[in-house]
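TODO from last week: model Fatty acid desaturase.
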Amino acid sequence: MRLVLCLAVANALNVVRAPPKTQTMGAVAAWHATRKNEITRRLGRDAVAELEAPTPARTLSCLAAVNVANVYLASATPALGGLWWLVVAATVGAWCSLAQFALLHDVVHGGADVGGAPGERRRFRERVLKYGSQPSVFGYWLYLALGHLNHHAATGDFTAKELFASSELAFEDGDLFFASHRQDSPGGGDDDPACISIARASYRTLWNNGGSDLAALGNAAAYALSMSLERAALCGNDKLVALTDSNRLFFPNKPPAFHEMCGSYARAAALAQCGVVVLAHGDLRALAYLLVAETAWQVPPWPAASLFVSNHGVHDDGAGVGGAGPADRPTYSVYGGGLFDALCFNANYHCEHHDFPKVPLWRLPELRRRAGADFYPESPPWTDVLDAAFRRRVTYPKWNREAVATSELSLL
């Protein structure tokens, strides 16, 4: 498995490694790699290379714009009086935070690369990710820096218990941080982490999969509450990490390099937060604005929440969340037209992204159009997806690991 993760990360960083003739890889990664080859044969390698070409000017300029907007809004909206700051944070601020996440996600996959040797590209991505994720109260750095690339290689192969107990530098599948709030695992409670987990405690004690309207509303409220409480707790924990260079409260087995990275980032984030508070003339609602903005787009009734709660989930009958098909596939997208794409900043094209991780978000709709409906069929309406995510039990598909000839597949 470690070999698989290293190969996936190396390929994402454009590092050339000679693969062995055969190897064991995650079944989800194999499924996407097979589709990638099939779509490439349909479109042609030149067309795929065109779609995968980085867009550094567009990506970095948009990232700078949304970050400046969030600094301005976080520092200015408390002066509006009343709860207007909350309204702005939950709408415009949420969209800016989602855009920040989507753009940084593209950076991690090389979408803003400007050339240079592999090591230079990696260091460039690390700098953009660290400083481009400001302002935030907790933000997306930890997941994107140490959990996302492995998520592509090992989707559904690990449990939350393994994630928190791991001694590896990077997380085996960072998606579990988010899925734990609203999605069961194949092993049920036996897969829960041994440490304190707001996400799993909320899911195990507050959720009711009875299917009634009242149960669905209660589940949505429990999900929103656990997401908010966890983000607030992590914001507080980050200050401890900044002072101690240690994140051992949650990850006691991680190596020293992990804790040093967390400490360095936490100090940079704390400085950015102090700057926003100064611009807000000492009003701490500026930090509350950032907390709401980072959380709101991930919870109902925000349309983007539909993609967040359904990208790797199935119901007990094997169908995707809300009846998305075909059944028994590991990854789903949510489609809803141009306005929906804009609200989601194209992050709703999740299956397309797992098939072609290097295609910048701007070109994912074009990838879907060219590949055709047999690869990317229509999804249920986003409202149906949101309703089903909180009305019916959602878990990971039970995928089996399999041996794959790497000469036949293009690894992620």
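Done. The chain has 19 helices and two strands.
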